[in-house]
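EI: anyone free to look at a 177-residue chain?
SC: sure, send it
EI:
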Amino acid sequence: MEILRLLRHLWLDTGDARRALGDDGLARIEARIRSSETTHSGEICVCVEAALPGHLLWRHLRSGESFARLSRERAIELFSAQRVWDTEANNGVLIYLQLAEHRVEIVADRGVNRHVTQAHWDALLADVSQALRARSLADGIGQAIDGVGDALQRHFPWRGTSEVRNEDELPDRPTLL
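SC: here you go
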């Protein structure tokens, strides 16, 4: 069983992430982020990764660290690499989907964490996981975007005029790895 799990990580690549979502799914996710960001001043970033990178697989083999913990650590790495932490109001949120482990993680910046508890994110992730189990990746990610957007709207509402859209600090297009 463990060998099959490791082989799944070694087998999957970025092309698998692209195929899993499809061009239509990617476009729907991008539009959902763009729409959400018109209602709040936060930034939502989505990363979809087919498999954990080799350095984390090697760590699992050496130390036996759980894939759940490694997936969370990878989400935090990408939070930094995608510069989600670098928004003006510290209100960026990363939604990370790891296909090989069927894991979803939400990593929020310190400005958001002052208002939104981990219990809130955990409840949202439980709902999203059901959609993902139904093999509807784009819908599951869309549900996560809506949940994150609702929290951002509650705590960081957009206060600009209707003619001016808030500055888009992060790309709306999902990053595929």
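EI: Residues 2-157+165-176 form a domain with the Diaminopimelate Epimerase; Chain A, domain 1 fold (CATH 3.10.310.50).
SC: 👍
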